[in-house]
Write a structure and sequence with these properties.
- By secondary structure, the protein is mostly helical.
- The protein is built from nine helices and six strands.
- The protein has helices at about 5-15, 20-30, 30-40, 65, 70-85, 90-110, 135-155, 160-180, 190-215, and strands at about 45-50, 60, 115, 125, 155, 215.
- Helix 1 (about 5-15) packs across helix 2 and helix 8 (about 160-180) runs antiparallel to helix 9.
- The chain starts with a helix and ends with a strand.
- The relative contact order is 0.18.
- InterPro entries: YdjM-like.
- Keywords: Hydrolase, Membrane, Transmembrane, Transmembrane helix.
- One of its GO terms (molecular function) is hydrolase activity.
- This is LexA-binding, inner membrane-associated putative hydrolase.
Length: about 220
C-alpha cells in the first residue's frame, strides 16, 4: 500500500493536531524507510518479478524485522517513546506509535501472504488485494481522499505556500501512484531501489514540511 498510508497520516492530524504532518508521514512509513537499508545490508531480501501480482512486481522474501506484527509494535513503542521524550505529550506520542503500527494492518489488506507475525515464526499473512488492480486503486483512493478531506476540513492555508504546497503534495502523490501502478518495473538492483525510494521520500517529506508549517489548525 502507498497512498493509503499517507491518507491515514493526513487524517491522524485531527486526532493529534500538535503532531506535524512531516512526523506523521515518517511514522506511517517508518518501516518502509528502514527497509531499504536492511536490504542493502542483506538482512532482509526482496525479489523483483514482473507479473508477480497485478499491482506490484515485488516478491517480499524475508523482511521480519521491518514488517512483522511484533516488530511493528516494537517500532511503534520506540517511535512513540522518542516523540514523548522530546515533546512530553502523551496523547500525541500514542498517536505517533499507533501510526507506526498501522503500517502492518494496512499492508495486510493488500499484500499476498508474506507478512510475518514475529521475526522468527513461519506463519505469514496477507489478504492479497494486490491481485486485483481495480480493487487496489479503489481502496487506496478512498483512504487517501478521506484523509486529505479531513486534513483540509480542519486546516486552512496561512499563505500561498500553505495552499499551493498542499496542491503540489497531492499532485505528486497522484503522479507517483500512477507511475507505481502503470509504469515499468524498477531496476533489479538494490542500490537503484534505495536511490529511487530515498528521492521519493525526500520530495514527499519536504512538501509535507512546507505545507503543514504554512497551514493553521481551525
Amino acid at each position: 500500500m502507498f497512498l493509503g498510508h499517507y491518507g491515514l497520516a493526513f487524517g491522524a492530524k485531527k486526532v493529534a493536531p500538535k503532531v506535524s504532518l512531516l512526523t506523521l508521514f515518517v511514522a506511517v512509513e517508518f518501516v518502509d524507510i528502514l527497509w531499504p537499508f536492511l536490504l542493502m545490508l542483506d538482512v532482509e531480501q526482496v525479489k523483483i518479478r514482473p507479473g508477480f501480482t497485478e499491482v506490484t512486481p515485488f516478491e517480499f522474501v524475508h523482511y521480519p524485522y521491518t514488517h512483522s506484527l511484533v516488530m511493528g509494535i516494537v517500532w511503534g513503542l520506540v517511535c512513540g517513546g522518542i516523540y514523548w521524550l522530546f515533546q512530553k505529550d502523551t496523547r500525541s506520542a500514542i498517536v505517533v506509535g499507533l501510526a507506526v503500527l498501522s503500517h502492518w494492518f494496512l499492508d495486510l489488506i493488500v499484500h499476498v501472504p508474506d507478512l510475518p507475525l514475529t521475526p522468527f515464526g513461519t506463519e505469514k499473512f496477507g489478504l492479497g488485494m494486490w491481485n486485483s488492480l481495480p480493487l487496489t486503486v479503489l481502496t487506496e483512493s478512498v483512504i487517501f481522499i478521506a484523509g486529505v478531506w479531513v486534513y483540509m476540513k480542519n486546516t486552512r492555508a496561512s499563505n500561498g505556500k500553505g495552499k499551493w504546497g498542499l496542491v503540489s503534495l497531492i499532485a505528486f502523490f497522484v503522479i507517483a501512484e500512477l507511475f507505481n501502478m502503470f509504469g515499468p518495473p524498477p531496476e533489479d538492483s538494490i542500490p537503484a531501489l534505495l536511490g529511487s525510494f530515498m528521492v521519493l521520500q525526500v520530495i514527499v517529506l519536504g512538501l509535507a514540511y512546507l505545507t503543514d508549517r504554512n497551514r493553521t489548525w481551525k
